[in-house]
Write a structure and sequence with these properties.
The structure holds two protein chains of two kinds. By secondary structure, chain A is of the alpha/beta class. Chain A is built from eleven helices and 13 strands. Chain A has a domain of 213 residues: P-loop containing nucleotide triphosphate hydrolases (Rossmann fold). In chain A, the strands form two sheets. In chain A, strands 7-8-9-3-10-11-13-12 form an eight-stranded mixed beta sheet, sandwiched between helices. In chain A, strands 1, 2, 4, 5 and 6 form a five-stranded antiparallel beta sheet that branches. In chain A, a hairpin with a 2-residue loop joins strand 5 and strand 6. Chain B has 15 helices and no strands. Classes of the chains: A alpha/beta, B mainly alpha. Bound molecules: adenosine-5'-triphosphate, iron/sulfur cluster (SF4) and magnesium ion. The site of iron/sulfur cluster has 13 residues of chain A, from helix 11.
């Protein structure tokens, strides 16, 4: 399968009054063409920072470094500003968490849908509009022609997110980053939007990085999953393997937090992982999850675990020597 | 949009009526007008005569409607002091003040908006600090002092421009700079804060995510939204400038409305005072109305309200 995105050791830090906040601490990500990769993790673990770094949308004061950040063979970090603009928007696009505020209130939807493709692909206004209408229709927006002349405030949140999805597809990108696109929506609409993204992703063969804090969502749409904790990937596997055979104590903890239809009785107590996320300012000593981990041993406080293959396969990797070791003992 | 305009007009109209009542009342409640017109050395009989001549013996309500009826026909009576009708005086003075105000506002806008945009883009750099310094100086410096400095430099020393009068366009240059510099800082700061806020907004992030050029992001997506409150401020500033041009007009001996108002107040020329107050107020209301309409054109969300 063709690799569209290959990121090695991505680090993002932000200066704060209390010191350097290291929001992303060495992340490796691979995304194949047409694949749905879910990044899952608690609030504040650096999911948005990662996606903004990939898009090149972080504020100037943020410091971004990586060993490699290859997009379809191009090194994103060495591109000029102009080349980066060309890639962003045309070949990779983004859907944001906040549908209510992500559209410019002063311009019509048609204007905002079309401006990217007119700039990048030099198509005529009419062609751009035609594509916008087609995609709005595909995104389930009723009366697509009429919408082109409407303003964002005339639409509900769910519809605006559909418009954002259509917008992200305008230039036929190879990669879409969707940062919690359903979090701000009603539960029923969440399910519709989720289904829509999955459908369109498969229909157009677009690779998607789908960011969420909800493993339930992951179970429904992901091909592969990366579980993030405190700025690092702690476990990555195919969706199937992750749910069937979770290794990292954090992943297991998250899995205990989601209700399983049929198994979890209505009203019964759902577990949540006790404890708080460590501060991301400065260095972390030992395993970042140590203070909340029920499997930790004395060693965990001192040694920072690295991401290791599980069962000798790079398809399933875990950042926890205890989990890997205990498995080895069992064999 | 039409409904919007109609509603705003209704509001503007009721404000105008209120202002006319208030300005009428203020003068009449500030003392016995007949006595102040007659002067300190007059006899009681003279005062009585004046009271009847000027219609001051009639009930207040009658006087008000009498005056209002004249006012809507642009007849404000005769000046007590100048040998002219009030309307004659005003039609002579108003264009001077309007020209001055419009020039000053244009000047202030042309400088304030680009400066505010640059300051926001270059936030916390020396450019930003320089812009803020200019603004602080503009706000702190008394306008008459700045006006005098301009006269000393450009009229007296360099002799590029005349120091006073209103015969040609050159006469308006220095007053417009003096008045405009006074209005500029507030607009500049508002543009700057507006731009900073908008540049941090989600829709600017969206625009950037589409890979648009930085100039498109700033001028199309950011400025349009940042400038909305500035339009309202500009209208208010112009209103202030019309009312507050008294100082500048007297420094540059421009025969404008401000100076007329000042002369009228010091001479108890109350038909003139009332007319000047009413006209400035009406302009102020018209400007606010205009700002509302422009705002609605810029911001589609306002049109429905
Ligand atoms: N503008 C900022 N300045 C300083 N720190 C920030 C800023 N934005 C985010 N952070 C910090 O960076 C860390 C990672 O934030 P990020 O937004 O990537 O989290 P997230 O995983 O997307 O969380 P959520 O699920 O809440 O969106 C957090 O600890 C957050 O406090
Ligand atoms: S390394 Fe130790 S503390 Fe960290 S997850 Fe594994 S067992 Fe828990
Ligand atoms: Mg986030």
């Amino acid at each position: 399968m063709k690799r569209i995105l290959d990121v090695k050791n991505l680090q993002v830090s932000l200066p704060t009054p209390n010191g350097n906040l290291r929001a992303v601490r060495g992340i490796d990500l691979q995304v194949n063409k047409g694949e749905m990769l879910c990044i899952v993790g608690e609030s504040g673990c650096g999911k948005s920072m990662t996606s903004m770094a990939l898009m090149g949308l972080l504020p100037k004061r943020a410091e971004v470094t990586a060993e490699a950040m290859h997009f379809d063979g191009m090194d994103l970090l060495s591109l000029s500003k102009k080349e980066r603009n060309q890639v962003r928007g045309m070949r990779m696009s983004m859907i944001f968490q906040e549908p209510m505020t992500s559209l410019n209130p002063s311009y019509t939807l048609g204007n905002q849908l079309c401006e990217g493709i007119i700039k990048h692909k030099k198509v005529s206004k009419d062609e751009a509009k035609k594509r916008a209408v087609y995609l709005l229709e595909r995104a389930g927006v009723p009366y697509p022609e009429k919408r082109l002349d409407q303003y964002p405030h005339q639409l509900s949140g769910g519809l605006r997110q559909r418009v954002m999805i259509a917008m992200a597809l305008m230039c036929e990108p190879d990669l879409i980053i969707a940062d919690e696109p359903t979090t701000a929506l009603d539960v029923t609409i969440q399910a519709q939007i989720l289904r829509l993204i999955r459908e369109l992703q498969q229909e157009f063969g677009t690779a998607v990085i789908f960011i969420t804090h909800d493993l339930g969502v992951v179970a429904r749409i992901a091909d592969r999953v990366a579980v993030m904790y405190a700025g690092q990937v702690v476990e990555t596997a195919s969706a199937q393997d992750l749910f069937a055979d979770p290794q990292h104590p954090y992943t297991k903890g998250l899995l205990n937090c989601i209700p399983i239809p049929g198994k979890t009785l209505p009203g019964s107590h759902l577990e949540s992982i006790p404890g708080v996320v460590p501060s991301l300012i400065g260095e972390l000593k030992g395993c970042a999850f140590e203070n909340r981990c029920n499997a930790s041993t004395g060693e965990c406080c001192y040694r920072s675990p690295s991401l290791e293959n599980h069962l000798g396969s790079a398809a399933h990797q875990v950042r926890c020597p205890i989990a890997t070791a205990s498995f080895q003992e069992a064999v | 949009m039409l409904v919007f305009i109609f509603r705003r007009l209704l509001v503007a109209f009721s404000v105008a009526i209120t202002v006319s009542v208030v300005s009428f009342m203020l003068l009449h409640l500030s003392g016995d007008l007949a006595i102040s017109i007659a002067g300190p050395e007059s006899t009681a009989a003279q005062v009585e005569q004046i009271r009847i001549d000027f219609g001051l013996d009639k009930p207040m309500v009658y006087q008000y409607f009498d005056w209002l009826w004249g006012a809507v026909q642009l007849d404000f009576g005769r000046s007590y002091y100048f040998q002219d009708t009030v309307m004659g005086l005003i039609s002579e003075r108003l264009p001077v003040t309007l020209t001055l105000g419009a020039l000053a506002l244009a000047l202030a806008t042309v400088i304030a908006i680009p400066l505010g945009v640059i300051a926001a883009i270059k936030q916390d750099t020396w450019i930003d600090r320089l812009a803020l310094t200019i603004a602080v100086i503009g706000q702190a410096m008394p306008s008459f002092w700045f006006a005098l400095t301009l006269i000393v430099i450009f009229a007296v020393n360099l002799q590029w421009l005349p120091a006073g009068g209103n015969e040609s366009w050159q006469h308006f240059v220095l007053p417009a700079i003096a008045l405009g510099y006074y209005a500029m800082p507030a607009m500049m700061r508002l543009t700057r804060t507006g731009m900073l806020e908008v540049l941090n907004s989600d829709y600017i992030r969206t625009a950037r995510s589409k890979g648009l050029n930085e100039s498109t992001v700033i001028f199309k997506h950011a400025l349009r939204n940042a400038v909305i409150p500035v339009v309202a401020l500009a209208a208010v500033e112009l209103g202030f400038m019309l009312g507050g041009s008294v100082v500048i007009e007297s420094v540059f001996s421009l025969k404008g409305l401000g100076q007329l108002g000042w002369d009228a107040i010091t001479r108890n020329d109350y038909p003139v005072v009332q007319a000047v107050v009413l006209i400035i107020a009406v302009f102020y209301i018209l400007l606010t109305f205009l700002a509302d309409v422009i705002n609605a054109m810029l911001d589609p969300r306002l049109r429905v309200r």
